[in-house]
Design a protein that fits this description.
The complex is a heterodimer. Chain A is an alpha+beta fold. Chain A is built from 28 helices and 43 strands. Chain A has five domains: 153 residues, Mth169, Chain: A (2-Layer Sandwich), CATH 3.30.1280; 44 residues, no CATH class; 343 residues, PurM-like, N-terminal domain (60s Ribosomal Protein L30, Chain: A); 173 residues, Phosphoribosyl-aminoimidazole Synthetase, Chain A, domain 2 (Alpha-Beta Complex), CATH 3.90.650; 178 residues, Phosphoribosyl-aminoimidazole Synthetase, Chain A, domain 2. Chain A has a seven-stranded mixed β-sheet with strand order 18-20-17-21-19-22-23, sandwiched between helices. A seven-stranded mixed β-sheet of chain A has the order 37-40-35-41-38-42-43, sandwiched between helices. In chain A, strand 9 and strand 10 form a beta hairpin. By secondary structure, chain B is α/β, with parallel strands linked by helices. In chain B, the strands form two sheets. Chain B has a nine-stranded mixed β-sheet with strand order 2-1-3-4-11-10-9-6-7. Chain B has a two-stranded antiparallel ribbon with strand order 5-8. Classes of the chains: A alpha+beta, B alpha/beta. Chains A and B meet through helix 1, helix 2, helix 3, helix 15 and helix 20 of A and helix 1, helix 3, strand 6 and helix 6 of B.
Chain lengths: 998, 272
């Protein structure tokens, strides 16, 4: 039996969702709709009585105060109606909670095949539009054909009694799960199967795989379990484990690096080992607060004597690029499982975001799947729901626009957790699987969603990329699981825990059974969303919200009881062994039997040619132009640049205060709308210690040299936490590389060798900077292949590659949160200081870009002098000598003086002549140089002598004063006033691009 | 009474339970976080508790209306016990998602002691989006609400997508007449927000941010008092610190207005 309940707001209530659609149709397409009303549809496929239907209608699905509802179509007036529902198999979160509510109130259980599906009707009043235009609204504003289906109704076609009909997007597979043996008679045959099945096996791996399965001892052992040729599930397992996403083949590759095409070849064998692992281990030995690095789902640092924190960062680029909302919510909810699966399980305390897309107002020739504006709307919303509904604050984030992200956007998500340092008297960072431990899967069920996600993200996005790997995260299910796991941890029921992310069970069980050296899995026990999945699909499905745990047999009853209390599904799916074999059975029949050490033996290293070309050789020069005359307009225009302007609308949508530990918020200052340098949280509420967190990305500098891009990015992130009160002696980092394809191909990737060289240089910079700043890499990830092929104006397809990008996140300890400062000028009369040297470093700056130049003088980091001044600033902050502190970042001094003034809503008078400079003799260059290592600090006059004493001998100068006049007045190096703008005008300009967004 | 015991509900996507329990502890109470299912299966009974807290979060993902499914579950399985709790003269507070739950259970507004009737609603913000923002709130001094005694103007953050208070005009009139309207969105200087965004962040009718029942013992509000339990929670604290330092004063930890609100409840039960 199918029932369809329609619900809508009473006429007198404004329909906020409808209004958003109305505004977007106007703003994005210039379509003037008169009115939009939303009708929510609940389609119930279950045998319910009339009385039961009446109860759920009145008590669950409609609010008597605000809504009307009916099991017949509601007579909401329209000229056009767009119905939107999910495609079969797409996660329908409200549908699932509807089932829970119905079962609860009626005291019934849904039978097999019973379900609730949610969908929507948008009733649009508008005259003079065509069905095609409505189709555009449907496809480009409200729905995405990857996950949704829609229908357009003209008023004339609408049957008031039938409405939309009864649409149940049920998955019906009618398929008997089958294990297929795969022929390996030749390399070519296996290659062909790899292509057909989208296994993405590297051609170089194929002979290794074949030779393993042809080994006599292997064949003999396999015979004992009735196997001969490899099965599809075995090859899927190998493919997942060998993917670049899981195995980091690029970073572990061999690079033949040349400084120049004529220079000798330097062999860089394994960038990961040389530039990440080695320095991190060295620093771990030196720094007692580094607890655990390089092996677990997240790195761990010490918070206080009783607590550690865990941190990691991820990207979710390819899925977000196809389905922005689904991709980003899956990304943020997914990264939250990393700290949950770190040590014996951390409590999540914060998350952050970094979004790189094309320009929001792009109107060029390229036709991306999703316009950057829509893409950005979607990814913002996904992180909003994923973070807010997880009850985890999102107090920091950043956005960067560049045409290079038109091919593939970047969605960075970072997560921080807190874990007691001891669980059951033992260090909580240690965990292991042992023979006889039960393998438990907790959380969501397994469906076809997410199959081949890992291998797809290891490929360039093209029209053949399977859309099936796009998912929709479910923060509600995960939050329940999070609360459950923490209770199970505190009752000492967990031996080992890891998350199911890329590669699903294949990765989580495959990797965790390396520790015990074997496992035996009964695949039929894995709970499924619907029948008909093949064994290999169950094994590699990336269905979300799942953790894999090891539980001792004697603890399993209590574990499962606790799971039930939290309304979380947990299932024993097998046990760990020490057999040396990954052994998978389905209803008693073996479908996989592989040596545990197969993956660590004999696979060939990836190799890359990497040839650097110096900027001069690429034709980069400093531009020739005179100093501008109209500095006022220049300042205002710079403030209105998309990469500088206010992004308040994003921060406001994110709950940045839940959990009650907010100390420094993302938006600060008098009007609470200027961006903070960093966030500070108090993750343990009865402690006065805090964690300062920030991140940075400066891909623009890669246009000149990715080495300096990397140094500057790390330096900026470091300065950001120093500015709020972070301790330079305790800063941990997370590197997230997002690089275009670096494999040279004469036609398809002619500059591959250069991009590979950029990667080598970036890794060198990473090591140099981390060692100089004593900054261990607590965690990190790489995502390669940030390229896309987009249709152009004349039917051609163009390859678009992103700038070589690294997001760097830092976390620092704040000993006493009461010492924290914010960036806003505090009181009139305060003295303004600039710390650090301004150099002629405008290469790839916002200013040059504004004028259409690239330039050559990329900002360079001078480690030792910078660090000395950071330490001095930290001492000053600790001693409460500083009223405000703010780093000088993109856009340079002029922009960031404006930020400090806008923050305090106070004027300033500044004398450029007094700025510490190194051979810079133009006011515009002083104002807009992006030299790193600098801060703007305001100090109360009574603190002047002590403050200046601290900075004696350092590049630090008093350059002006905070004033009551409400204007930013800057005198140029000839002592003439070049800038005189009211703080209000600064703010209007700064809010111009996005100020109207909510 | 020696010790006031507070029960803070948790589970099913609720998420402010830790800091709410912490804030009540700072207010002098003993506080436990208890899973909704422990109330339903009666492994925990309400008897020993004096204050029941429906806290913030996204129960059941806020699908089908914020707080709706939570209200259904609690009303279905524990409705009687909660009514008895109220009738024993104890206190109930609903914050954000908890407020939404209270109005969907009918515990608010509780006209004529009828605690089952849904007559007010919290619906989607007029601005069309979730919003995290600190607001100024005027306290109705004439309200019987026991939580807001001695308070007149407070600041807390709102963090919600469905906080627009809505009811029929006659219901609003009745709430006002009974002084059941406890908190109203206001400007910094104490003038009414008059429905204007962003001071009234969601378009609530008559700037209503919180209401109580006629006894003043059941209270619901959209803003989060527990989010202001430490002076560093306040958005202006770094400026305040600097101004005080120049008067040679330091930030005194003292009670924030969030803790004062909870302290009122604890004091009330101590004297009950």
């Amino acid at each position: 039996m199918i029932s369809r309940l329609e619900i809508t707001l009473k006429k007198e209530l404004a329909d906020a969702e409808g209004r958003t659609l109305l505004h977007r149709a106007q703003d994005y397409f210039g379509m003037a709709l008169d009115d939009v009303r939303t009708v929510n549809i609940i389609t119930i496929e279950a045998a319910l009585t009339k009385d039961q239907l009446a109860i759920i209608q009145s008590d669950v699905f409609s609010n008597p105060v605000t809504q009307i509802s009916s099991y017949d179509p509601l007579p909401v007036d329209f000229d056009w109606c767009i119905w939107v529902g999910y495609r079969p198999g797409v996660r329908d979160n409200p549908g699932s909670t509807a089932v829970e509510a119905i079962e609860d109130i009626l005291g019934i259980r849904f039978g097999k095949g019973d379900a609730v599906y949610t969908s929507k009707r948008y009733c649009i009043k508008a005259t003079g539009f065509s069905a095609a235009e409505m189709n555009r609204i449907a496809g480009e504003l409200v729905a995405n054909d990857i996950i949704q289906q829609w229908k357009i109704y003209d008023r004339k076609d609408w049957q008031p009694k039938e409405g939309t009909g009864f649409i149940c997007p049920k998955v019906v597979l009618n398929h008997t799960p089958t294990v297929l043996p795969v022929t390996i008679e030749s390399d070519d045959a296996l290659k062909k199967i790899s292509d057909e099945r989208n296994l993405a096996l590297n051609p170089n791996d194929i002979p290794v795989i074949r030779s393993y399965f042809l080994r006599e001892d292997v064949l003999k052992e396999r015979k004992t379990v009735a196997l001969s040729d490899p099965t599809d599930i075995e090859l899927e397992y190998i493919s997942q484990a060998r993917s670049d996403h899981c195995n980091h083949n690029t970073f572990r590759g061999l690079f033949r690096y040349q400084d120049d095409v004529s220079s000798p070849v330097i062999v860089e064998d394994n960038l990961f080992k040389t530039y990440i692992q080695k320095p991190t281990l060295e620093l771990k030995d030196k720094l007692d607060w580094v607890v655990s690095v390089l092996w677990d789902n997240a790195g761990i640092g010490r918070f206080d004597e009783n607590h550690n924190y865990s941190i990691t960062g991820e990207t979710h680029n390819s899925p977000s690029n196809m389905e922005a909302y689904g991709g980003s919510i899956t990304g943020i909810v997914g990264v939250y499982r990393d700290p949950m699966g770190t040590g014996l399980g951390s409590r999540l305390v914060m998350g952050s975001y970094g979004f790189c897309t094309g320009f929001r107002n792009y109107n060029g020739d390229l036709k991306p799947r999703l316009h950057p504006r829509r893409l950005l709307d979607g990814i913002i919303e996904g992180v909003k729901d994923g973070g807010n509904k997880s009850g985890i604050p999102t107090p920091f984030g950043q956005v960067y626009f560049h045409d290079g992200y038109m091919g593939k956007c970047l969605v960075f998500v970072t997560a921080v957790g807190i874990i007691p340092s001891l669980v059951n008297g033992q260090p909580s960072e240690n965990k292991k699987t042992s023979p006889e431990d039960l393998i438990v899967m907790s959380g969501g069920r397994v469906g076809k969603d997410g199959i081949h996600g890992v291998t797809a993200s290891s490929e360039v996005f093209s029209e053949h990329t399977p859309a099936g790997h796009v998912q929709i995260g479910d923060p509600y299910t995960q939050k329940k699981m999070h609360d459950f796991i923490l209770e199970a941890r505190d009752e000492c029921l967990i031996e080992f825990i890891t998350d199911n992310g890329g590669g699903g069970l294949s990765s989580s069980v495959g990797e965790s059974s390396q520790i015990s050296n074997g496992c035996i899995v009964d695949l039929e026990k894995v709970p499924l969303k619907y029948d008909g999945l093949d064994q290999w699909e169950i094994w590699v499905s990336e269905s979300q919200e799942r953790m894999t745990l090891a539980v001792k047999p004697e603890n399993i009853d209590r574990f499962l009881a606790l799971s039930k209390k939290h309304a979380v599904e947990s299932t024993v799916i097998g046990k760990y062994t020490n057999s040396g074999k990954l052994h998978i059975k389905y209803n008693g029949t073996t479908c996989a039997y592989v040596n545990m050490d197969l993956l660590s033996s004999g696979f060939p290293q990836w190799t890359f040619d990497a040839v650097w070309e110096a900027p001069e050789k690429r034709g980069l020069r400093e531009p020739v132009f005179n100093e501008p005359k109209d500095f006022n307009q220049l300042m205002l225009d710079m403030l209105s640049r998309p990469n500088i302007s206010s992004k308040e609308w994003i921060a406001r949508q994110y709950d940045h205060e839940v959990q009650g530990g907010s100390v420094v918020k993302p938006l600060v200052g008098k009007e609470r709308n200027t961006a903070s340098d960093a966030a500070v949280i108090r993750p343990v509420l009865d402690s006065e210690k805090g964690l300062a967190f920030s991140q940075s990305l400066l891909p623009s500098y890669s246009r000149i040299d990715a080495y300096h891009m990397t140094c500057a990015t790390i330096d900026e992130a470091v300065r950001r936490v120093i500015a709020v009160g972070g301790n330079p002696g305790h800063i941990g980092g997370v590197d997230n590389f997002c690089w275009p394809d670096i494999k040279y191909h004469p036609e398809k990737n002619p500059d591959g060798k250069f991009k590979a060289a950029q990667l080598v240089r970036s890794c060198q910079a990473l090591k140099d900077t981390c060692m100089a700043y004593s900054l261990p890499l607590l965690s990190g990830k790489d995502s390669m292949y940030v390229d896309g092929y987009l249709p152009g104006r004349y039917g051609e397809t163009r390859k678009i590659s992103a700038l070589e990008t690294m997001q760097f996140s830092v976390i620092s300890l704040v000993e006493d949160i009461k010492t924290c400062v914010t960036m806003d000028a505090k009181l009139p009369g305060d003295l303004v200081y600039v710390l650090g040297m301004t150099r002629d470093e405008l290469g790839a700056s916002e200013y040059y870009d504004h004028l259409g130049f690239t330039g050559k003088n990329v900002p360079e980091v001078c480690f030792e002098p910078f660090l000395t001044s950071y330490r001095a600033l930290h001492r000053a902050i600790e001693k409460n000598l500083v009223a405000s502190a703010h780093g000088i970042y993109r856009g340079g001094l002029g922009i960031h003086l404006s930020m400090v003034a806008m923050g305090g809503h106070l004027g300033m008078t500044i004398d450029l002549e007094k700025i510490p400079v190194d051979h810079v003799i133009r006011s515009d260059k002083i104002l807009f140089s992006e030299s790193p290592g600098r801060f703007i600090v305001t100090v109360s006059p009574d603190n002047q002598p002590v403050f200046e004493k601290l900075f004696k001998g350092l590049p630090c100068a008093r350059v002006g004063r905070v004033t009551e006049t409400n204007s930013l007045i800057i005198k140029g190096i000839q002592a003439e006033t070049i800038v005189n703008i009211t703080v209000n005008d600064l703010k209007v300009a700064w809010k111009r691009p996005f100020g109207d967004l909510i | 009474m020696t010790q006031v015991n507070v029960l803070v509900l948790s589970g099913y996507g609720l998420n402010c339970d830790h800091e709410t329990a912490h804030a009540f502890k700072l207010a002098g109470a003993h506080a436990d976080r208890i899973h909704i299912n422990a109330i339903i299966d009666e492994s925990v009974t309400l008897d020993k508790y004096h204050i029941l807290v429906f806290g913030g979060g996204f129960s059941w993902g806020d699908d089908h209306g914020a707080g709706v499914v939570q209200a259904v579950r609690l009303k279905t399985h524990s409705g009687e016990k909660i009514l008895q709790f109220i009738n024993e003269g104890k206190l109930v507070i609903g914050i954000c998602n908890g407020f939404q739950t209270l109005v969907n259970m009918g515990l608010l507004p509780g006209f004529d002691k009828d605690y089952t009737m849904r007559s007010v609603a919290l619906t989607h913000n007029d601005c069309g989006n979730f919003r995290d923002q600190w607001v100024h709130l005027n306290v109705n001094k004439k309200s019987p609400c026991v939580f807001t005694r001695e308070l007149s103007h407070v600041e807390f953050p709102v963090r919600h997508g469905e906080g627009k208070f809505y009811a029929d005009p006659n219901v609003i009139e009745r709430l006002e007449k009974n002084n059941q309207v406890v908190l109203r969105y206001a400007l910094e200087n104490g003038e009414p927000a008059n429905g204007l965004f962003p001071d009234n962040p969601n378009g609530s009718i008559k700037d209503i941010a919180g209401i109580c029942d006629t006894t003043g013992r059941v209270f619901g509000l959209m803003p989060h008092p527990e989010a202001y339990h430490h002076f560093t929670n306040h958005p202006d604290w770094t400026l305040t610190k600097e101004m005080l330092r120049r008067q040679e004063k330091s930030m005194t930890p003292g009670m924030t207005s969030g803790i004062k609100l909870f302290r009122n409840a604890v004091l009330y039960m101590e004297n009950a």
